[in-house]
Design goal:
The chain is 22% helix and 40% strand. The protein is an alpha+beta fold. The chain folds into two domains: 2-71, no CATH class; 79-163, Immunoglobulin-like (Sandwich). The strands form three sheets. A four-stranded antiparallel sheet has the order 3-2-1-4, covered by helices on one side. A four-stranded antiparallel sheet has the order 5-7-10-9, with no helix packed on it. It is elongated, with a radius of gyration of 34 Å. It starts with a strand and ends with a helix.
Length: 200
């Protein structure tokens, strides 16, 4: 890949990348704290999808004659975004339940926005993770469990809420004798009215 344009105008950097027989241009802010190589990498990340698209086309918006330009080698893909996903984020234990299993999955993207296949490691504040299954033992009190997935130094942490088994409360309510007497009187009155209406 060649860089055939690298031009700053009013603090806007315009970069033209040439490959095969086409050119893709992109613009970004000229960050003076970055080196030229870092700015080229940033520009490449910004327009990589356009370059990939142009590779599939027979005709191009900007043709290149193959003349000139300086060599540019983009960074190899590396993890940039890690997203940890759990099949649930809270659980309440039931009577006799000793453990709960929560299925974990991880989506990792590289700096170019594409799926990245790297080694993912898990760390949890309670329980253990085997084959993307988090196993949490029974708890006696409400517990927040933090689970972290990391890949190449990039990580994502999620919080899970684990509740202990709670014995159902049986409420023994006192029923007022007056209310019982009123209910019986209403039933008696209703049956007398029904008898009178039936007699007509």
């Amino acid at each position: 890949m060649k860089v055939i344009k690298y031009e700053v105008d009013r603090n806007i950097l315009t970069v033209g990348f040439a490959e095969s027989n086409f050119i893709v241009y992109t613009q970004l802010a000229n960050d003076t704290t970055l080196t030229k190589q870092e700015l080229l990498q940033k520009a490449y990340e910004q327009c990589k999808s356009a370059i990939d698209y142009e590779k599939t086309q027979a005709e191009h918006s900007f043709e290149w004659d193959g003349v000139g330009g300086e060599e540019f080698v983009p960074e190899p893909p590396n993890a940039k975004i890690v997203e940890l996903i759990a099949d649930r984020y809270s659980h309440q234990f039931e009577i006799g339940q000793e453990t709960v299993e929560i299925v974990l999955s991880v989506e990792v993207q590289d700096q170019y926005g594409e799926a990245y296949d790297g080694v993912v490691q898990f760390v949890t504040t309670l329980g253990s993770v085997t084959d993307n299954i988090l196993t949490i033992p029974k708890v006696d009190v409400f517990t927040k469990v933090e689970v972290t997935a990391s890949c190449d130094g990039v990580e994502d942490t999620k919080e899970l809420f684990i509740y202990p088994y709670v014995e159902p409360q049986i409420v023994d309510e006192h029923v007022d004798e007056e209310i019982i007497a009123m209910a019986e009187a209403i039933i008696d009155l209703d049956s007398r009215l029904s008898a009178l209406e039936g007699g007509n």
